[in-house]
Specification:
Layout lengths: L5 H7 L33 E7 L17 H9 L1 E2 L3 E2 L5 H10 L3 H4 L23 H4 L11 H7 L3 E5 L14 E3 L4 H14 L5 E7 L8 H5 L21 H30 L6 E7 L14 H4 L3 E4 L7 E2 L4 E2 L3 H8 L14 H4 L12 E5 L12 E5 L3 E6 L42 H7 L5 H9 L6 E5 L17 H17 L16
Parallel strand pairs: 1-6, 1-7, 2-9, 3-10, 4-5, 4-6
Antiparallel strand pairs: 2-8, 7-8, 11-12, 12-13, 13-14
Helix pairs in contact: 7-9, 9-13
Amino acid sequence: MKDVSRRGFMTQAAGIGVGLTGLGALSSITAAAQSTTTATGGSKPNVIIFFTDDHSAHLNCLGTTGLDTPHVDALAQEGVLFPNGFASSASCAPSRCALLTGMHCHSNGVWRNVHSPTINAPEEEFGPESSFRQREPVGVHDDIPTLPELLNEAGYYTCITDKTHLSPIWKFPFQHRFTNTIPSETKQAFGDFLEAREDKPFFIMSNVNWTHRPFLRPIINRWDKPLPDLAQVEVPGYLADNTLMRQDLAEYYRTVEMCDLTMAAYIEVLREQGLYEDTLIFFTGDQGFCYHRAKATGYDKGIRVPFIVKPPAEKPSRQSRALVSHLDILPTILDYAGLEIPENIQGKSLRPLLSADEDPLDWRDYVFAEHNAHGPNPLEYYPTRTTWDGRFHYIRHLMHERTWDEDPASLLEMDGQLPPEIYFAGPADAFPTPGWGNHAYEAAIQGKDEFPEQYRVLASIFRREHEELYDLHTDPEELHNLAEHPAYQQHLERMRAAVDAWMLETDDPGVDTRDVPRRTA
């Protein structure tokens, strides 16, 4: 197994350029299409999931200005681009475990981030005798099959890269592990994996971490092209549009571009070995980018992610407006592999969308997501449930009474020693804490007078309403809560009922999620 650590990469990269050659739909939550044949006439397709960290729906093919992602854009041209693609949770481990079980985190048991071994930990840490058996009580229930378990049993050779964030780790028995570094090293590691698989079909979950803070300085400062032009950087309307914010976003864009090059390294190897056409490829993000009111929240910037699927042996080349979720990835893979889809799955196979010229009218009326807590600190617990119908976005904060009533600007005066009671409002890396390199909060404080609306939005993260409703057709930045507007009460009641029905159907314990014990064998 070849494994190059990220710390080692930081020294390598110092002088290296990395250029490269309706409610009726609720009844379908637990229903998934069964398939007995594969897309390639019986042989199981190879599968790759490119899973970027902290990456909202920002790609050139999604209209983001100042961002150059030619290889991902090319993938979208050969597959289906889903602008309405959503994570099922806005934190790392819940999102990953939801994808790999096809179930919402309140259903599978991983409702917060978890402790798990690093990718290059000793082999014994990945088995049933792992030290994490005692260290981490939160994990996927034993009676829920995971994607690597299902694919291993079906004869696949399985691999994960860069990070785990999975619990219990032995429920995710990937057979191979390596780290993505500079593209030339990634090409070699991927090639070694393909050689090790012998004649088996392969599945690889390529976790691509460049977009996670702190951004690696060799990527930001030493790449063989300048940072994106600050004048071309697209500043989301809820953030203060000043130089500090544009500089921070330019660095984030640079890391997205590095994700593009990482994926390109894999694609080049696939083409060289004649495997590209028969490989099912997904490109998506685990949750939204790391700014306030995004990562670890139920807002649009926290749960809407890039979502592209290239099916095997097909080039549909279209954009779909269908509402899709990470929960749909597992049943899609099983469908194309000709494997039975377990009854517990809460997603749907995307195959009808990937093989059609237009979206089926009966696909899905709502897509749902949640957030409970980013980490184990009890003060971070802030359960949120949310749904989107293609236009309206409804958010319900189940513990809205939790607030922090101090002056938001006071956090800049604390030398990074922030009070732990603020972290219900977002993760530590979204605040002015040492080591994370996030300047968005500071930019909003600096721009208080010039950008008062953006400052108001910043302050609102500490004092949220019980319900929020946004019309994303007219208010894509979610600046105006319509929950109490008389003209929108019908939409509010409809969306509220959808969430009620979803919570009931999926046995969502609501505010008691943390008290549900893990089911063990």
